[in-house]
Structures are given as structure tokens and as C-alpha cells.
Amino acid sequence: MKVPISFLIILLNCFQVCLVKAETDEESAASIENRPPNILFILADDHRWDLLSRNSSQVQTPSLDALANEGVVFENAFVTTPICASSRISILTGLTERTHDFTFGRPPTGKEESSNVYPALLKRAGYTTGFVGKYEIKLSGEDDERFDYFKPLLQSKTNEWEGTQIPQTHYIRNLASKFIKQASTGDKPWVLAVNFWNPHAHDTDKEDQFHYPPEFDSMYSDVDIAKANISDDKDFETLPDFLKTSMGRIRREYRFATEEMYQRIVKRHYRAISSVDDAVGSLNELLKSLHLDDNTIIIYTGDNGYALNERQLAGKWFGWDEDLRVPLIIKDPRNPKHKEISEFALNIDIAPTILDFAGLPIPAGYQGSSLIPLIGAEEVDEWRDEFFFEHMYQPKRAPIPPMYGLRTAHWKFVNFYKNDYVQLYDLENDPLETTNLAYEEKYQYLTNGLLQRANVYIEKYENARSEEVKSRKSFENTLLPN
Fold this sequence. Notes:
Layout: H1 5-34, E1 38-44, H2 62-70, E2 72-78, H3 84-93, H4 97-100, H5 111-115, H6 118-124, E3 128-134, E4 149-153, E5 158-161, E6 164-167, H7 168-183, E7 190-195, H8 233-237, H9 241-244, H10 247-253, H11 259-289, E8 296-302, E9 307-308, E10 314-315, H12 321-324, E11 325-326, E12 328-331, E13 339-346, H13 350-357, H14 372-376, E14 386-391, E15 403-408, E16 411-416, E17 421-426, H15 444-463, H16 467-470
Parallel strand pairs: 1-7, 1-8, 2-13, 3-4, 3-7
Antiparallel strand pairs: 2-11, 2-12, 5-6, 8-12, 9-10, 14-15, 15-16, 16-17
Helix pairs in contact: 7-11
């Protein structure tokens, strides 16, 4: 049978179309495979390291536990300043407070520091960038230089969503979900910072303190919260007077002063944490539903630790581990593996790590380091074995003594320099930091040595300030005594 020429032409055209489509599909698949990863950075407020159910028999955080089981857990993650404003600037800039010079009552972060925050660098490199939630910081320049989607929020119990008041944690989750859905329709990778207010206390609400969505109200109701470590009267009495009368003690009086109050308030704090955990789970499920979970890195951490009646204090401004230590989980689905890392990780490591994940160069001025070598290596030849920390803010309205210090795996030194008081703890034999050795004769040499070592960091970090920051009038409480 003779086949018509027209049919052969149609058949040939169909073959060519199919061939082109196959090549296009291969190119598209290769493009997706080679596309830089999306990055979802989630920050909770006042979430300390041990308040995860993987570390606690009482707190329930199933979503964060699942994230940890699929990713890398940094068992020794710390902030370099235990207060939200300074810590959040350190996360964005990769710089210590001593260098970026930002805390409450200070001018905006300098132009140089602000231009080098990781969202600005990613935006200039072609990423779609977003921010939702707690901000409460000041950067130089315009927000649209850093963020394509910018939704900063003051703390509140509820916010309006589509005509209805909903709990703020749900509202932040919804804003994050909206960004992810919109950004994922484009052809660019995206990075989103989701900053939850929870579990931060509502400081003006001295009765209830912590708030959360109503569906969490029954959680922990049948639990007897364990007594805080080192919270007996004798533990409080060993403190110097300036700590006994500090803001840590003042806030303790309306949070943990009685056993009944302690049980009630800590349960509310736990519920606030569990509400953040639930939101993390929802965002993770959204990534799966949009088929983004195989190329979206998730990073979860806290902006500082939090004292829950340890030493009969509340708050976070001091140098003990309950103030400095935070959870840090990183899940990279492109290299799925569970790993627990014991090396020190710091909040100033977040920015360089995010840039490294995106394949961008890390600014030479950054003081943190990318954590990717720790994630990928079986053994790490060189890494920090100590770190400097400080709290430079001392407001006139509240007694918060400034301090700085140095922590190694074995020792911790703290200098409350305005109060002429130092601390030295043997962390290897006294991990709860119960006994101050600084004034024992046999430890004088070590105490003085760690003091000098800490002062080296101060000089280093002050010398690293930009010319703009150096030209500013010093915050009166940051100066070392003569």
C-alpha cells in the first residue's frame, strides 16, 4: 500500500515535536536539579536548647523532633549575646554585638553592616527574599533592598487574617505559607526568614505571661512540671546582691515565686513552644504538598536561652548556659542524614552558612563560619574550641548588669565588670554551674588568664567595627572600667 506523502510529513513533524519535548523535559529536569536550594530559616524567641521532646520527658515538640531525625543537630549551639535585638542582628550580619554595636537604644546598624546582611546579598544574587514575624531591630537603608516580601510584626495575641482574628502564631505561619506559595511559582530560588514571637512572654500581662492558640490549652494539664535545677533558697543566697535585685529576680516574682505559679506559668511557656512546633510541622507539610521538600533547606534555632527559675531567676541576660544555649537543627534534603554534632555552633554562623548553602561567597568581615564543613565531614581538623559572649545593654529602666565572658568545653569565665564581680565554672565537673571558683586561691591564675583572653576578643571585635560605628558616641554602659 502506498503511503501518502502528506501523512509522512505529519509523522515526521510529530517525531520532531516529541524529540524537542523530550529534550526540553531533560533540560528542565537538569535545571531543577542544578537550581540553588530554597532556604527556610525559622527563629523562635526565648527557646532554649533543652526544651525539645528529644531532650525532655515533658515538652512535646514532635515536628522539631522529626526535623532533627532527618537532619543535623548541633548539640552545643550558643548565642553570642543573650537578648533578642542584638542576637537577631548577629544572625543577619554574622557579627558579634561588640562589632555591629546594636542593641536597644542604639542607632541602626551601620550602612556597611546592613548592606552585608545575608538577605541583601541573596537578593542581589537573584534570590526572592522574604521576612515575616518579629523584627524589632533597625538596619540602615531601605527594607526593599533586602526583602521582596516584608511583614514585620509587633507582639500581639491575635492578628486579623481574611477578616477574622486568629492567634499570632497561626498568623505568622499563614504569612509564611503565602510567601512560599507565591515565590514557588517563579523561576528563582527563594529564602524566607520566619521569626515567631512565641514562646516570648507578654511582659505587660503579668497574670498569664505566655499566650498560644486555644487548641493547646489542655496540653500539659495532667503533667507535674519538674522542679528547675539549682532553684533552692541556698542557690539564690549564693548570688551577689546585684543579681539578687536584678530584673531576673523581679520577673521571677510574677512568674515562679510560688509552686502553684511555677506550675501554671511553665506549662503556658511549654504550650507556646508546642504551638511553634505545630507551625513548623505545617510549613514542612506545605513544602511537601508543593513538591519543594527535596530542594528546600530548613534551619531552626532560637534567638537566646531562657531561665525558668534556675537560681530563682527569670530572663536571659546573664552568662549561664540556660541563657546562652539554644537548639539548632539543619535539614538539607539533598544530603539526607541524621547527625549530631558536638562542636560549638554560634548565632554568628547562621549568615555564612546560608550564603554557603546558596553557593555565594562569604564576606571577609563576617566573624562567624559556615557550618557546612561540620555537616559534611566525618572529622573536622580545625574548629573553634572557645567563644566570646557578652551582654552590653544596661537600661536605666531595669537593673540588667552588663557582662562579657569566655566559654570553652571545660571552663566558663564571666565578668560583670560594672559590678566588679567575676565567675569561673568548671563545666566538666560542674555542668550546672553551681560553684563559682573565681575567688578560690588555686584558681586565680586560670581566672586571670581567661580574663586576659576575653579582653583579647574585645580588642579584636572593637577593631573590626566599621568607620561609621567607630565614629559613634559609645553607649555609656559598654565601656570597660579604668
